[in-house]
Amino acid sequence: MLVTKYNPYSGLSDVKRGFEVLNSIMNNLDLSRDESVIASFLPAVNTREGEDAYYIELDLPGIKKEDIEITTEDNILTISGERKLKEEVKEEDYYKVESRYGKFSRSFTLPEKVNIEDIHAESKEGVLEVVIPKLKEEDKKPKKIEIK
């Protein structure tokens, strides 16, 4: 039989761990009240690969194309923008205003063999489609450069 010394404080570590779990849950609930979380959103994204290009589709309902910016830097494509929606209803017996504001930014690492110069985008019915053309076979072949 193994003899162990009784420690009256040994159960406190379990209590401490329980409080840590409770604190983490409460901290997550507090994030929902944080203004920066409310004022930002993350649009849904679909990506797919076609034979000649890669496609990125973002759901951006109610966002004007003037409020969207698409940039490339260091082989990273970044799509960012701002949502400014204000819905106002005036009736005889009530007045209702609903405003939704927020910024978003999504970044994508581009594959190596894409034609960055010919990337184009189109916004239609709240869906932004970005087309990233692949390099063609003739662009991939080594080229001889003439010395002048």
Outline the fold blueprint:
Blueprint: H1 12-31, H2 35-38, E1 45-49, E2 53-59, E3 68-73, E4 76-90, E5 95-109, E6 120-124, E7 127-133, H3 137-140
Antiparallel strand pairs: 1-2, 2-7, 3-4, 4-5, 6-7
Give a verbal description of the structure.
The chain is of the alpha+beta class and 148 residues long. It has a domain at 41-138: Immunoglobulin-like, CATH 2.60.40. The chain contains 3 helices and 7 strands; from the N terminus they run ααβββββββα. The chain has helices at residues 12-31, 35-38, 137-140, and strands at residues 45-49, 53-59, 68-73, 76-90, 95-109, 120-124, 127-133. The longest helix has 20 residues, at 12-31.
Short description:
With 148 residues, the protein is α+β, with helices and mostly antiparallel strands. It is 19% helix and 41% strand.
Helix and strand run: HHEEEEEEEH
Strand content: 35-45%
CATH class of the domain at 41-138: Mainly Beta
Uncertain segments are 32-38
Tell me, what's the shape? flat
Q: Would you give the CATH topology of the domain at 41-138?
A: Immunoglobulin-like
What count of helical segments does DSSP give? Answer: 3
> Roughly how much helix do the residues carry, as a percent range?
10-25%
Mean of all residue-level pLDDT scores: 80
N-to-C span: 93 Å
